[in-house]
Amino acid sequence: MNLQADVCIVGGGPAGTLLGHLLAKNGVSTIIIERSAGVNRQFRGEHINAETEAILKEHQLFKRIEDLGILKMKKVEYFSGKNMVKSISPGVHEDHVGIHVPQAHLLSAIIQESEGNNNFQLLFDTTVKELIQDEQGIYTGVKAIQNGEEITISSKVTIGADGRYSTVRKLAKIPTIEMTHGYDVLWAKIPAPKGWEPTTRMVLVNGHQLALFTQTGGFIQIGWNIAEGSFPSLRKGSLQPYLEPLIESFPELEVSVNEHLQSWNNFVCLKVQSSRCETWVEDGLILIGDAAHTMTPTGAIGINCGMKDAHILAPILTNVLTENNILSEHLKIFEMNRRNEIKSQQIMQIKQETSFSQKFVG
To answer: Which of 131, 215, 227, 259 is 20 to 30 A from 334, comparing alpha carbons?
Structure first.
C-alpha cells in the first residue's frame, strides 16, 4: 500500500499528535503512524504546567481534555519524615500548581478534535522500518509495517516524534549526547485513601527523593530515586526499606501500600538519562520531543517540552512547506528557536537534583 502526505509523523504521543492536529488545521496533509494499538498505553509523565495549559487553551483543546477528566493540584508539599517543612500554594488568580492529565484523555481529545479533517490521518499498529531518501539524500518518507503488511508513505517532511529510543533518529544516524545522572526511578501506583488531597508531595529519605503525585481516578503515583543501575540487586532483597519510610511519613497509606505493593513486580524501573542530539534536522527530516532531547523526571517537564516543540514547529513547518523549502538550512529555524531553552532546562534539572535537600530547610 502506498500513501502520500505533506508530512509523515512517526510517533503518536502528545507531541506527535498535537503537531499533526495543528498542521492539519493549517491545511497541511499529515499522516501519523503509531506502533501501539491505541491511546490506552502506560505513561508516567502526565503532569502539565501552566505554559502547556496555555498552549492547549490557545488551540481550543483544553476544554475537551478537561471534559474527559483532569485533576488540578492544590499544593506542592515538602516533608522530612512526618514533618511538613514547606508548602507551595497557587499564586494570585490561580487555582492550582500543576495539572494531572491522563495521556489517554489528552490524546483522545486531540484526535476527536481532528475528526472530520481530511488532512489528518492516524495509523495505529504501524511500525517504521526504513527511511526513504532520494538521490540527493533528502528524506522523502518512510516504509512501515502495518498488520504484517509493508506500506510506503511518501512525504515532503518526516518527523521523528518517537521518544527517547527514537527509531527515526537511529535510522537517520543522528548522533546524540547522552548524560547519566547517577540515579534511576522506581515507579508504582496505588489507590489513594479517602480524603487524600490533590497534591504533589516530596519527601526526603536518607538524602534521596521520594515523590508522590496525585492522579485522576483516585490514584497516587509514587517514585523512589535509587542508585543508577541498582534495581537488579534490589530485587533480590526486601521491599520493606522502601515501603517503611513511605508509611512512616503517610500512615494513611498503609492499607493501600500493603495491599498493592506486595512484590517487586508491582514496580517499574525507569533508567534516568538526559540527551541532546547534535542536530535536530536533516534535509526533509525533523526530530522533536524526547527524540531530540530527552529530559529527566525532575520537575515533570518532559511532556511539556515536547508539546511546546509541536506548538513552535507547526507554523514554521507550514511556512516552509508553502515555500517548498525543506532543506535543513530552512528547517533549522525550529532548532534555533528551541535548543537554548532546552539546554537551559536540562541544566536547571541538574541543579535541582544536586540541591534537592536544600528544599527541606524550613
So the answer is: 131
Look up the CATH number of domain 2-45+102-179+272-357: 3.50.50.60
pLDDT at 43 over 70: no
Which residues are within 8 A (CB) of 119 and not within 5 positions of it... i.e. 6 or more apart? 23, 24, 25, 27, 28, 29, 30
Domain boundaries defined on the chain: 2-45+102-179+272-357, 180-270
180-270: what CATH class? alpha beta
Bridge-based pairing of strands 71-72 and 99-100 is antiparallel
Q: Rounded to an integer, what distance in angstroms lies between the CA atom of residue 159 and that of residue 333?
A: 15
Burial class (CB in 10 A: 0-12, 13-18, 19+), 62: buried
**Cα–Cα dist 196/100, whole Å:** 15
- Note whether 30 and 22 are within 8 A (CB): no
pTM: 0.94
